[in-house]
Amino acid sequence: MARPRVVVIGGGFGGLAAARALSGADVEVVVVDRHNHHVFQPLLYQVATAGLSPADIAAPIRWILRRQANVRVLLDDVVGVEPAGRRVVLRDSGPLDYQALIVATGVTHTYFGHDDWAGHAPGLKTLDDAVAIRRRVLMAFEAAERESDPARQVPLLTFVVIGGGPTGVEMAGAIAEIARQALRDEFDAMQPEAARVLLLEGGPAILPTYVESLRASARAALTSLGVDVRESAKVTHVGDREVRVGDEVIAAGTIVWAAGVQASPVGRWLGGDVDRLGRVAVAPDLSVPAHPEIFVAGDLMAIAASDGQPVPGVAQAAMQSGKRAAKNALARLAGRATEPFRYRDPGNMATIGRARAVADLGWIRLTGYPAWLAWLFLHLVFLIGFKNRVVVLVQWLVAYVTRQRGVRLITRDS
Asked: From the candidates 28, 142, 170, 177, which is the catalytic residue?
């Protein structure tokens, strides 16, 4: 008799956690992803700002799951889900039947109805995004070097980061460090340290999920790096090399979007209710109420934590929910009772350049150098692959000592 098939869509934190939790189970596991690699998304901004190479924060999904005999990996696009027929439709491989389905396809950028802004202000969700932004950032300095008119250098050296969450804060701080530290004394016709970096947050405060004392520390750290932090600054238009905030027009050579996310469209195919961001409303055990053989994990799920607040779209939540979804899928296949998902919040942290960070770990709040060390340690712990951990640690040590960024490469395909 054939073993039941569990299909896992997505090779991110949630999907990998689910696949690993199914190791050794008497089921056939099929992991489907449009990319052949898993990306450690919390460090994408370091690729985008020339601190790390793409290979430093990514690993092939097949290599990660190589020791799981019951797992098969497919590189393919999911173009449909048929809950009634318990079938996933793949672009190249065709239909794929399942007895249980775990969906962890995450989120992408949203421009709040202004999709035409995307070409002017790229977001940061994939390795391709990170490499493309790295090229834009580095090319801005090269363009300014070629410009002999100081007045025309100003917009070329103006960088605008839209969105004051952790990604935006980290991006703004890293760009400021590139200009004021890594590129000093390397150009002749212009001064990189004259670059202008603006961080625009539409809400009343940057890092809105943090307590005010940590937000104040983050503001001070960004300001010390020369970042112009603007809160309650709602962007009304993004065009070719310009951003409008109300009546003000900001000429900018480089614009980065870090302001919002939208759930993967796969969530709308599962036969359940979705919220305004496209996240799937799930039962306490992470299943779709209308189709209890389908489970949702990671950023795609809409579920409240014990405090009544939505479970945040962070790596730890994805890993915890992926593991619980896998265990509940096995329980449902065996006719056993499932268990509710209980999110254990490990806290929040964001780094703001060299030896600067803020961290709220629940039992303790840290700022400055101690927070930065905690950030380094925890990111190394969760980074997949021993080689990657060693390489990233060495890169960080060199960058700390020399204040340089070693991956300042501009390539034609970047």
From this structure: 170
Percent of the chain with pLDDT over 90: 78
pLDDT at 374: 92
DSSP state of 204: S
State yes or no: is 82 an active-site residue: no
Q: Which two tokens stand for residue 277?
A: 């961001």
Q: What is the pLDDT of residue 413?
A: 54
What is the DSSP-derived secondary structure letter of residue 257?
E
Structure tokens at 10: 């997505």
Question: DSSP secondary structure string, 2-32?
Answer: PPPEEEEE--SHHHHHHHHHTTTSSSEEEEE
Taking the C-alpha atoms of residue 332 and residue 329, their distance in angstroms, rounded to an integer, is 5
Q: Which residues of the chain have pLDDT under 50?
A: 414
pLDDT of amino acid 412: 66
Backbone torsions φ then ψ of 376, nearest 5 degrees: -60, -45
Rounded to two decimals, the pTM is 0.92
Question: Residue 351 region, left (φ>0) first, then alpha (ψ -120 to 50), else beta?
Answer: beta
* Residue 249: closest CA among 263, 257, 239: 239
What pLDDT score does 414 carry? Answer: 46
CATH of domain 115-259+348-402: 3.50.50.100
Q: Kindly report the CA angle at 351 between 348 and 356, in degrees rounded to 5?
A: 120
Planar angle of CA 39, 359, 47, nearest 5 degrees = 30
Best CATH choice for the domain 5-34+76-109+261-333 from the list 1.20.1250.20, 3.50.50.60, 3.90.740.10, 3.30.420.40: 3.50.50.60
**CA–CA distance, 252 with 197 (Å, rounded to integer):** 9
**Dihedral of the CA atoms 357, 318, 9, 276 (nearest 10)?**
-90
Q: Is there a contact between 40 and 57 (Cβ–Cβ < 8 Å)?
A: yes
